[in-house]
């Protein structure tokens, strides 16, 4: 009996041990399952940060939802902030983003104008689509996690007294103005601050500088002020960054720019840029569309490229050339390198500063603001047929003509009168839908928009904003209202087409990889973080990628109307039998002379010489003075 009891006890202990081990195994399995689920969930949220943020950054303005549905928290300058992600209750395209809507309790109430804008849907009533990846498979997608949505600090170093230096993509830096650096205001205080106003009048250099510095000090989390150089007479060429990350590059998010007043007597653009800056910072807390734009774009605004010329121009002069040129008498829009014709004009401080600026920051989209006509003019401005070119009126089309027409139409169609194409006065041309090819209007050599496009792949459009170059200040309120929506919508077009990262097989970004969309022979390059962008319309394309020491690659992808395409590229190193890196012959892109040496181009047409060239040049100057 005792032996039986002992046996029973042993059996009970064994059963209990087995049950305990089974339970432990179940617990471990549950833990592993929970861990896997957590990892999967974390990967989803990681992708929301690495890719989802790219989704947010690439949603076009006419597909944006008025109903952002969740928020991400992130650290910025040591403080906790809330960032609206672009979630949506819309399932129009079969996918819903985000969770439930969270409303910030400390957000100020929108003023009547903002409420009217939101309720009318003039800017904000848009939908969000699902996001599409390009072809390439998992191996071409996963590396995006290595270079996802991360803020890259500028690592500012001391510069001149009262300034800090921001390194650019090429390692050089600009002095960030901090004269008013000790003055700081909260965004909520500023919305309610009635003293922060900008009158509708023209601001000379000192008043413009004061406004920019005041804005920078009052909105330190949305703006940064820096100078890219000085004019002939020593005036700073101020640039203001407006973004929720003004001091940091957000990987995967594009840089765009506006350049105004390069002709000193074309003053409307200068003032509209100041009002645009004020509008953006004031609207950030009350307008979800502006918040989206600033959260996903770094907007650089150069209000006056020719401050010396502005100082001698006179209000009310609609025509003529007083103040048009810089202090040395040079037309700055004839002072850039040219693809079609050698430009022998001596470089000026203002254009040299803009060229260096453009080389340091890879801008995706740009607008040059002018006056004297009402039209959006797109490249090319010059043409191979340069003999008496002002009489030809022959279009000189780029490989991206469809995109440039679309960008121009985006501006003109959001303008109440530009799209009508009505002539400013008798004897001046009319423009179908308010847009024109530059060379078809009148060709010119050394223009800024051709330089941006051919040298750096930045798509720039010239925006002529008023029939009168320097109208009375009483017309500024009307001009601002006519252009406000167009100015915002145009910048948002940077979030269209394709973008992604180029990395090696180890997930490291490849800097200065050369890219080209097949059939569009204007190349572009990756940033130091391997990023690239290209504005494209819906269609099927092939991307050609070249890197020094890497096997060339081609990838097919599709762009649709509703949203942009994320296309990540993995390149593999290639070595010869002697173990030296293989160097792929450089492809023939459109670039005439790229400072970074990425491409060669066909030989440009021969330069005109002698008296015929002088007559042609003189006539072109006469035409440009007449029409802007």
Automatic annotation (TrEMBL):
UniProt signal peptide: 1-27
MF terms (GO), sorted A to Z: metallocarboxypeptidase activity; zinc ion binding
One GO cellular component term: extracellular space
Keywords: Carboxypeptidase, Glycoprotein, Hydrolase, Metal-binding, Protease, Signal, Zinc
Residues annotated as catalytic: 464
Necessary cofactors: Zn(2+)
Biased composition (Polar residues): 63-72, 116-127
Pfam family, one: Peptidase_M14
Domain of life: Eukaryota
Region named Disordered: 59-86, 110-138
An example Gene Ontology biological process: peptide metabolic process
PROSITE patterns cross-referenced by the UniProt entry: CARBOXYPEPT_ZN_1, CARBOXYPEPT_ZN_2, PEPTIDASE_M14
InterPro entries per the UniProt record, alphabetical: CarboxyPept-like_regulatory, CARBOXYPEPT_ZN_1, CARBOXYPEPT_ZN_2, Peptidase_M14, Peptidase_M14_domain
Domain Peptidase M14: 201-494
Stated family: Belongs to the peptidase M14 family.
PANTHER family: CARBOXYPEPTIDASE M, PROTEASE M14 CARBOXYPEPTIDASE
Protein's recorded name: Carboxypeptidase M-like isoform X2
Gene, per the UniProt record: LOC112682902
